Every structure is written in structure tokens, then in C-alpha cells.
Amino acid sequence: PTLREAIQNLKAKGMVVSRQGGGNYISETLGSELRDPLLQALSEHDEFRYDLLEFRDALEGISTYYAAIRSTDDDKKKLTKAYEDLIQAHNMRLPELEAKKDAAFHLTIAECAHNAVMLHTMRALFQMLSQSIAANLNYLFQHSEARERVMQQHTVIYNAIMTGDGNVAKHAIHEHLSYVEDILLEVSRLESRRQRALKQANLLL
């Protein structure tokens, strides 16, 4: 009776839905109130991507650490599949597919951490995460050496989790996100210089 009452309360709040044929499921719209305004900010303000990277550094640093020390054999199988999918997409050089597999890899890490709050937050942000990674990769594709280095960083993260080294895993995700931020800042500076040069050239015409 207590469980039924709890489920009814969750249904009333829109957090759980019942499906024909039996079963109760977490609502697919759960987290949209958090996600939608952030998606709008991401699309309208370039500087927002740096805030997102900073937030990811804090959240994923902890989740990657716990993934390394808590992941089960089944978790590691799922992570291996996500990692291999990412490698395949990387080799195909399709930014949209690679962004999707990149986000899925990071989400799988959150699943391996066995922390419901972290996982829910990552799932709520999954669409925004995919969009952000796609935008980041568009910049990285301008620097082939940077793109390869990012893939190497994913490998370090993966290996640290597979070997159960939480501290190395946490450090690896921090290095990865810091590097992405540095590349984005460099590209942004170069674009600003290009725009200034165009304005000066137009003034001389």
C-alpha cells in the first residue's frame, strides 16, 4: 500500500506515467523545465558554452570518480560498447554522429557512477550536452591535431574507469574539459582577430 501511494503521488506530479499493458515509467518530459531554458541560452549566447563546460567539470569529475570505483562488470561492458561506438563515429568523421556518441559515452559514465541524482541531471541535460558537443566539435574539426587529442583523452578516461582508478579518472575528465575550453577560447580569439581585420579592410576601401 505504501508503494502504491508513493507511485500515485509521483503520477500526480507528472514524474511517473503508466503505460498500457502494465508498468510505471519515469516521465520522458522529466527535466524539461531545467533543460529548455538552458538550450535557449546555449543557442543564443556563445559564451554560455564555457559555463556549461565549467558545470560539466564539476559534475562529471565526481561521476567519473564514482564510475571508476563503483562500476560493475555489466557497467564496464556498457561503457566499452559506448567507447567503441565513439571510436567508430570518430573514424567516420561525421560531426553530428560523433557528437551523439560522445554525449552517449559521457552519459554511460554517469550511469556507471550509481548515483541517481547525478544520473538524472545528466539525462535532463542530454539534449543540451549533445548540442554543445556538436558545436565544440565543429571548432575542433578546424584543428585536426586537437580532434585527435580529444579522442586520446577519451581513451585515458575509459582506461582509468576500466582499471578502477578513481583519482586518475577524475583528473582525466578535468584535463579533457579544460583542453576543450582552451581550444574554444583560442578559436574565438582567432575569429575576433579575423573580424577586426575585415572591418579594417572595409574602412580602407
How would you describe what is shown here?
By secondary structure, the chain is mostly helical. 81% of the residues lie in helices and 3% in strands. It has nine helices and two strands; from the N terminus they run αββαααααααα. A two-stranded antiparallel ribbon has the order 1-2. A hairpin with a 5-residue loop joins strand 1 (16-18) and strand 2. Helix 4 (73-92) packs antiparallel against helix 8. The protein is globular, with a radius of gyration of 20 Å.
What would a concise description of this structure say?
By secondary structure, this protein is mainly alpha-helical.
Number of helices: 9
Main sheet attributes: strand count, strand direction, barrel closure: 2 strands, antiparallel
Q: What does the overall shape look like?
A: globular
pLDDT under 50 segments (min length 5)? Answer: none
- Strands in their spatial order, largest beta sheet: 1-2
Radius of gyration over alpha carbons?
20 Å
| SSE pattern, N- to C-terminal | HEEHHHHHHHH
Structural class: mainly alpha
> Span between N and C termini?
80 Å
The amount of beta strand, in percent, is: under 5%
